[in-house]
Every structure is written in C-alpha cells, then in structure tokens.
Amino acid sequence: MSTQEIAADTQVEMITVTIDGFEVTVPKGTLVIRAAEKLGIQIPRFCDHPLLDPVGACRQCLVEIEINGRKFPKPQASCTIPVEPGMIVNTQLTSPVADKAQQGIMELLLINHPLDCPVCDKGGECPLQNQAMSNGREESRFEGYKRTFEKPINISSQVLLDRERCILCARCTRFSEQIAGDPFITLNERGALQQVGIYEKDPFESYFSGNTVQICPVGALTGASYRFRARPFDLVSTPSACEHCASGCDMRTDVRRGKTLRRLAGDDAQVNEEWNCDKGRWAFKYVTQKDRITAPLVRGEDGQLHEASWPEALQAAAAGLEANRAAVLVGGRATLEDAYGYAKFARVALGTNDIDFRARLTSEEERSFLASHVVGTTVNYKDLDRADHVVLLGFEAEEESPIVFLRLYKQVRKRGLKITAVAPFASRGNKKLKAELIATAAGNEAGAIAKLSGLTNKSVILVGERLSESAGAISAAVSLAQSSNAKLAWIPRRAGERGALEAGAIGNLLPGGRPVSDTAARVDLQAAWGVENLPTNIGRDTDAILEDLQKGNIEALLIGGVDPLDISAHHHDGLAKAFVVSLEIRHSAITEIANVVLPVAAVVEKSGSFINWEGRARNFETAIADSLTRSDVRILSMLADQMGTPINLPTVAAAREEFNSLGAWESRSAFTPVAATSVSASADKAILTSWRLLLDAGSLQDGENNLAGTVHPSVAVISANRAAALGVQNGDSVKISTAHGAITLPCEIAEIEESSVWIPRNSIDSKAIATLGVASGAVSVVKA
Amino acid sequence: MTKLTPVLSASWDQPDSFTIEGYKRNGGYRAVEKALSMAPDEVIQIVKDSGLRGRGGAGFPTGMKWGFIPQGDNKEHYFVVNADESEPGTCKDMPMLMANPHVLVEGIIIGSYAIRANHAFIYIRGEVTHIIRRVQQAIEDAYKAGYLGKNILGKGFDLELVLHVGAGAYICGEETALLDSLEGFRGQPRLRPPFPAIAGLYARPTVVNNVESVASVPSIINNGVEWFGSMGTEKSKGFTLYSLSGHVKNPGQFEAPLGVTLRELIALAGGMRNGNKLKFWTPGGSSTPLFTDAHLDTPLDYEGVAAAGSMLGTKALQIFDETVCVVRAVLRWTEFYKHESCGKCTPCREGTWWLVQILKDLESGKGEAADLDKLLDLCDNIAGRSFCALADGAASPIISSLKYFRQEYLDHLNNGGCPFDPAKSTLFALEESGAR
Q1: Which of A106, A514, A727, B271 gets the highest tally of CB atoms within 10 A of its CB?
Q2: Taking CB atoms and an 8 Å cutoff, what residues of chain B touch A100?
Q3: What angle do CA A216, A221, A224 make, to 5 degrees?
Q4: Across the interface, do A108 and B347 touch by the CB < 8 Å criterion?
Q5: Candidate from A56, A104, A167 with C-beta closest to B191
C-alpha cells in the first residue's frame, strides 16, 4: 500500500522517524523504504513494489536500523519493516555497513546474470543496470562459471521468459497472484536453479500478463511483439489514454520513426494504479493493417469506390447529405471531441436529433436512464474502494472493464468486499471476486434485482451496458438505488460511450446533459452555438434509425466507427438503400456499401480525450506526430463548411474548448421506468445468454497474433442436467441454433441457471449476432 | 559412565522399546494422565519453571513459546513438531523416534493440551522410511489405546495427530518454511512478523517444537521441575542427547546433562579412533562455527558454547582427527548448503553458488592468498544479509575454519593441491591398519 493510500484511507496515527539524520513524519504502517523516498532518499531495490505485498527476497534494500537506542544486530530489509516511533535509520548514504551490504548483494545478483545488456530489450531502462551503476562495484570479483538456461522460453504466446536474466524477485508471480488473481506462474526448483514456471495444464492466460513484463526489473520477461524491436533511448514517449474500454487507463505510447512499437500502462493512482490489461497494452496493430484507408473514396457510377481528392469527396458527401433526410450513427470509439463534432453536426448541419452513439443492442429504457441518472455523474474508483457491497448487473467486470475488476479484486483480497452478481452463471472473473451469484436467465434480471436487499449508502450498483437488453432491469436497478440510497453507476464497454453521452451524441440529449425536451436548455445552446434554432423533437435511437432506413423514412446516414453486426444481422438492405457517408480507419462492412468514405485518424495519430465510466476526462496527445490523417471532428467541420452550415470546430483543441465552455446543465429529465418482463423457455429450448470476452474477434485486436494466442477458448456453458438430457460430457460439441443460423462449440458443464446456455458473443468461432441473429432469447441446443 | 543421564534413551536397549507395550512397561503414558488432570496453564507453568529450552538449535525456552499462544481467541490452535532433522551431523531425533516414538506422541498430547490445540502435526523428513513406519504405527496404537482421538482418557480433551512426510528439503526444517510445506506449498521461509504464535499454520496460532524438546516434556511432568533442574547448568537445565560422529572409537548418542565437555564425551565414546589427535569439531552441526582441540573443556551448554564463539545448535558433535583436510570438509558442507538453498533470497542463492566455486579452486590449489580475503569478504556479504539463517550457517564453517586453519588453506595454494591423503580419513583406512 502506498503512503498516499494509507494516509487517504482514514485518520491514521503519524509517526516521526529519523533517516540519515533527517526527520520525516509518515502514517503508521509506512515501510522504511517509502519513508526514505519521502525524503528523496533512494534505497536501491528490486523485489519491492508499492502495490505488492512485501517479500524481502532480493535483500538489495538493506539498511541499519535502531529503535529507541537498540540497534538490530544485522542490516534489515527496508522494504519489509514498517516505521516505529523512535526509529533511526541509516541508509547507504550514512552507514558504511548498509553501503557494503548493498554493494555485496549487487555483486551477488550479477554473478549469474548474463550481462547481455547490449542485446537486451531492457538495456537503457533497466533497474538492474541503473542500480548496478549507482550501488554496485565497478568490477565483479566473480571469476567462476555462470548458471545457463535455454533462452528465451514462451510462458504464453505473448510473454517470453529469459531465465538467465531473472533475478528471482518474484514481482511477476506476486502480481499474478495478488493483483490479477491469476496464479498461473510460480517459482519452482530451488537455489540458483530456481525459476519462474508455468503449470503444464493451466497456461498463463491471464488478461493482465503484460504487467509482469512491465514490472520485471530486468529483461527476464519480455513481450513477444516488442522483443528486439527497439532500444528505449530511440523511442519517443507520449502520455496517452487507452481506447479499448471505459476503465480509463492512463497509458504511454512509445513511437519510433512514425510507428508505434509498444504501449505501457501509465501511472495513475486514482484510476489504473500502475496496471492495464493485455488488450490495452498489445492491441495497437489494427492501425497499421493493410486495409487501412489512406485517401477519401467516392463511389463512382460503376458502383466501385474510387480514390478522390478531399474537395471532391467532401462535395459528394455534402451533396448526398443535403439532398436527403439524414441521421447519424457514431460508434463507441469516438473521443469526446469527435463525438461533440458529430453531435453538433447532426443538429446544425443536418438539423436533426437522430443521432445515437450506442452501436449495439440498446433500449429506450437505457436512453432515459442515461439522460436521468448517468450524464454528469461522478461515481468513481474511490467509491469502489470504500464500498461495503458492490452489485454487478449485466456487467462482467473482468471481461468488460478489466481495471474495474482489478479494483474490486484488490478490495476483495484486502478486506473481503462483498460482491453480488446477477448473471446466469459464475464466470471466472466473478469466481475470483468470490461474488455471490444470483443465477438469472437473460431477460429475468428485473425480478432478481427487485429481490436484492441489504444495500446501504456505501454500496455501489454497477450497471453494464448489457442490462439494457433486459426490459425493466434498468428500472429495477434505479428503484433499488433509490430505496437503498446506494450509488448507481453505468459502465459501458467502449471507451467513447460516456464521452459521447456527455457530448450529446444521442437523440434525447444535447451537449452537457441538456435535455432536448427542455426549451431553456435548447435556447442556451442556440445562443452558445449562434444558431437560430435547434430541432425540438426527441431523436431516433439506433434501432429506429436502422429501421427507418429500411422503411425509407431516412435516406442518408453519416456513420463513423460502427460495425452494424454489433447491432443486428438485418441491417444490410436498409443501409444499401441509403446514401451513406462513412468516416473510417479501415475498410469494413460499412465502407463496402458507403457512397463516400472519408479516412480518419486512429487514437495514436490524434489528440483528444475519452471520458471513462467515472466521468473522468482522460486526455491524450498525438503520439505519431507526422500522421497525415485527421480526427473526425476536423473532417466534420470541413464537411459542414462545404454544406454551408459551419460548425466551427477546425481542431480538436477548438472542440474541447467549446465543449468545456458550454458547461453542464443542472436539471435532468425524469426517468421513465419500464415494466419488468420475464422469459421462460419451453422444454425443447434454452435461453441464450452471451457477452463479449475481453479478447475476442473485435476489430481493434486485429493484427496482433501473440495477443490472440491467449484468447480463452470458446465454449458453450450448459448445466449438468442439460448435459445429461443431451447425453454429452464436458468438451463434447453442442449445437446452438435459431432460424437464422447455428453455432457449434464444445460444451462446459457448470452451475448455470437451468434454462440458460451461454456462449461468447463475438469470438472467432462464436459470433452470436451475425450467426444466430440474436444475442439472447430462445434457442435450441442439441448434441452436435 | 557416571556422566550419562539416560532418560529418553533409557529403554533403547530393550528389543520392544518402540512398541506401546514396551513404552508403557517403562512407565509411558503416565505423564499424560497427570497432565490432563491439571489446568492447561499449570502445564505451561511447569514447563516454564523447568527451564526446558528448545533442542532444535536456537534454545528458545519451550514453556515461553507455549505461553505466547493467545488464549480465548476462538481460533483453532495447532501444535506442530519439527521432525525434519536434516543438518549435516545431526542425528538425534531419528534414532530416538526409531527406538521410542511413543515418548514424542505423549509429549505432543501434553503440549497440545497445554496450548489448547485439537490438531497436531509431525512434519518428518521423507527419506527415513523405516522411522516413518514406526511413528505411524505408534500413532495408530496411541489412537487404539485412547490416547488420541475424542475425549482422551475421559478427560474431555480431543486431539487429532497427523504425520506429514516431507519431500527432503533442508529448508523445511526452518519453522515457517515447514509450515508452508505442511500447507502444501513449496517450502520457503515466510516473512515475519507475524510469528507462528500469532499466525502460523493456516494463519492460526501455532507452536512449532523440535522432537527432542517435546519428548523431554513427559519426564518433566512425571518427575518434576526440581528433578529436571538437578541436571545441567543454571541457565541450561536438564539432560540432552549429544550425537558424536566421526573419528571417535564408539560414535553414537550420549544422553548427558547440559554442560558436559567434549573431553568427557570423547572419553565416554572410548577416545579418538586409532589414538589420533583431535583436529576440529562442530558443537552443534555443520552450521555452527568450528571448534578445535582448544575447546575440549568448553561446557556444552547454550551459554558456554556461545561464549566460545559458536552455538550449541543440535549438539551434533562431528569429530575430525588430524587426517582430515579442513578445506575439503568445508567444501563438502558448502556444497550441501548450495544444494539446499531454497532460492528465495539473493545472498544465500547466489552466495553459496559462488562459495562452492571458490572453495573448489582453493582445494585444488588454484588461487592466491588474496582469495582468502575475498572469501572472507564474501562471507561477510552473505552472513547476516539473508532472509533466514540458512546462509549464516553456510558461512559459519568457512569463517571459523579460516580463523583456525588459515595456514592450511595457504598450504593448498603453496602445494598446488591438497596436501592430505583423503583415504587416511576413511573408515577403511582404519581397517587396513588393523587398529580397530
């Protein structure tokens, strides 16, 4: 636990100690090594990590300690000893004994180290290298033979282990056990042959394995994708934010000559601490795939897309949008600034509120909930830290917002935080959280939620985006929060959704939480935007837009970053009829039918900000400075100019500034509850339930094969009774089908709600919406 | 043989001493009846008053250890016996368990009763199959006889005793590594605090005692504190097993009062073999600094040995005569520590790896005088810097041998190799000379 954390937690006793002659006052429980840091005294260390339990293994941080005149007979590891009143500490700076002890340990650490720094990824940013310089002797006295191993070995497809370089600090194994709850690596053998190992039958398939590479204090663990690619001193680092989910990780993007070579977890104690997930760390090659769109494209009379100049393409797009009744769909990858651009473009250039950022299964109930209970709110990670009970509704923390999972796991491990999950079965993540499972078939959540009790004003109810798929469930959650005074927060899966909500990229809200139905709010915005009027009717949502495209009530569509297969398998005809302007990074199902395709910048090529689930802005700067692509908002501004209805957002900075100057609107529209429904399956059917796994067939993971190697295998989870009825054993294939199609997967027998069957929603071999046409509801399950 | 005080070893010459019948014939299982009639705190007080100190090496007062267990905490307590006797030279617990396993079982019942534990464990090293069988049989017989299980002797005390067989790691003799191993993990020492008395086995208050310490308890209960205090010295009370091995005529176990000297013990063992001269010896196993013939009259109790610069340890007296090369002996021990280093901390893991290489070079005459200073400096960087005491033990024989036999190291360098004939120190060398 860090010093700040201890201090912030509650009122704690403060203790004054003397280190190298300087007094320092720190909270009780602070370790000596951290008290010294407060004075700017750097005690060398390897195994010590402020977020891991002390282990005292490397012995590099030895200091001399005296308490009330009584001196410890031996130097002590400052990473394991908490401060005590009257303690006098002498580090290497003032104690010859401590200095010699540290030099001695350093010499020992290096005798079996290969010293292959010139070819090591870590060379140049290596704690062993650096501290050997600062706290070691110039020349080793070791003249013997070193321990050797085969190097490197894969401990997963994405993490490589060089056992010769390993100094056995146990940071990686402790991280896996204590932070991720995935003890898939462990130290084995003994003496100098001790080494990090994996279990034969349980591969290192942790979603957080990349952190072990980052905290390895030597070059023992390296990422397969980065190994031998660059020297740290050739990289240009840019602070950035993660585009993969709504957790809001602080990141660092390292670029060499215009190419992203790696991304690291940034250090933000309030959000991701020092961690991130493997998707955030390693999934960045989608930007450089061969299907990247590099120039504007306009569909010619031959029905083919042809490269066009920007003026040409903008003209074509403007003409099509002007001539037809148009709507806007913007996907969840948009930054706040881009979403604001879409929101303003819809109102000012297209004169419509027909805009929705929810490129997924949604409901009107959810839209009402977002406008009344989510926009502008600030439930945050600290509330999770302090919660007495956390309820997960339609939300699989480890799969859908992994840093939220890490926070919850930390509190479960530290103080047994109570977690309750309403889900069909206990997923791996929820088992790690020791969550109490309210086994519920998809569609019956409302009834289960209504029965929850025992929540207080220190409890937190986390609503996932999937709860919108069950009618009345969000209403039940709202009513539970009201009756218990528990905090209520919404955690979408995608990074841009919360920002898009704040930006007003939705049919019932204007930017800053201004209700469309609120005349004063509209007038306020008209004044700010300098426009005569704004559309007054509540806009269509995603479903209605797609439906009205089909019906011909809407004839044109501006669409950015949306995969229609996330919404429905029946989109094609409607979209094909319409005039479609697509803002895209790479070719997709949409660009195939679009009339005009405008290339846009990926996250590493632009600046902007995401608003994470807490409502916290995560700003990031351009990492690849010389990219020729531009952010969506810049292109929308050009398009609006072309249409003669300028939105005046020529840059990301201008968009951010204008959005911030609007301020938040105080009053909220009321929530419109929806009556609960329930589902049941006839004897020959099962109720399908599905969610996306963290690592799946998502297009932002394209191109990273090492990451794909740790995807969890797709299975269909069924109950023991169903397995018996079907006559299948664990691992036998079962076929899940609807009138639309069928998916065949090996089954896993688990304690799942009896009528339910679960499959991954969007994995390589299990694409529910595309194949079955649905993500939930009645399906038939038979032995394959 | 006036100096000997056989208590634990009194019945070893009886062919059925290891059976429950034999044990009972010799007065066994009477102490448990007596103890279970007392209040648990009374038992702890008797052990405290007796001055019994841990026989596993550190010499911590046994009664005080028992008294550390928090009472009325509504937690399970555990009583664990460390029978992982693995130190080179140490060979007292295994013969005792071979000849008299029931005395340990009886001690465990008394100790568990005293600390209010209803579960006890014996952690025994895995290599001693025949002893494991005897202890297992003793436990079974004790269950059958009603000394273990529910409502022991009708006194309302329940105790389950489990024999756990280790897999042969020296480090598992370290009490926290032992607990890790007992819990099913890889044996490596734990960070303290918390100490086992607060959070030991399965994070519950736990006593970990050496076999001999626990086995000494029934005799104290039977015969009283005064009887126990009539043996030994003021601060090191009672009797203990001294294990003489090496170059004496009759090696073996000698149960004597604490404070006896090696001169007396060698006399009891029939003198040095072949009339050879004593060269060096360990007072308590290989991790205790060496002594020489200058220490023949050092009282072998906790204070006496410490005052002379070593440790009483496990009272494993390894006797080496003038035929032995001290460099060779020290190298063998160092190889043992390298092999047994658990790998957790740097100085032990890397240090023993290096020490072996230096000593091998020295033994074969490679190197120069400055290497001896390097060796000593290295020992200084290892001893007292490690996570547990294993590395201290590894450095002890090196530091002490250099203290007493520096010239012999130099002789190796000057000679370009070992000046000793290793065959002369062997057993068959004796047979050839017909001296036996």
Answers
A1: A514
A2: 380-381
A3: 135
A4: yes
A5: A56
Across A418-523, the runs of DSSP E, i.e. the strands, are: 418-423, 436-439, 459-464, 487-491, 509-510, 514-515
Which superfamily does B20-229 belong to? Answer: NADH-ubiquinone oxidoreductase 51kDa subunit (3.40.50.11540)
CB pair distance less than 8 Å for B341 and A108? no
CA distance A765 to A697: 9
- Environment class of residue A60 by beta-carbon count within 10 Å: exposed (0-12), middle (13-18) or buried (19+)? buried
Question: A12-23 pLDDT, tens per residue?
Answer: 899 999 999 999
- Over the Cα atoms of chain A, what is R_g? 28
Cβ-defined contacts of A232-235 (< 8 Å, 24+): A232/A123, A232/A124, A232/A125, A233/A124, A235/A261, A235/A262
| ipTM of the modeled complex | 0.94
Q: Are the CB atoms for A164 and A151 separated by under 8 Å?
A: yes
> Which residue spans of chain B are classified as CATH 1.20.1440.230?
326-419
Cα separation, A779 vs A766, in Å, equals 14
Which of B350, B386, B387 lies at the smallest CB-CB distance from A109? B350
* Yes or no, beta carbons of B382 and A192 under 8 Å apart: no
Band of pLDDT at residue B432, cut at 50, 70 and 90: low
Q: Return the beta strands (E) in A73-152 as ranges.
A: 76-77, 87-90
Cα–Cα distance, A569 to A772 (Å, whole number): 8
pLDDT in tens, A325-338: 999 999 998 999 99
pLDDT the model gives residue A626: 81
**A112: chain B residues, CB-CB within 8 Å:** 350, 353
Q: Where in chain B is the domain with CATH 3.40.50.11540?
A: 20-229
CATH number of B326-419: 1.20.1440.230
**How close, in Å, is residue A109 to chain B by CA atoms?**
6
Contacts of residue A168 in chain B, CB cutoff 8 Å?
343-344, 346, 349
Going by C-beta distance under 8 Å and a sequence separation of 6 or more, which residues neighbour residue A309? A296
**A482-516: pLDDT as tens digits:** 999 999 999 999 999 999 999 999 999 999 999 99
How do residues B239-275 score in pLDDT, each as one tens digit? 999 999 999 999 999 999 999 999 999 999 999 998 8
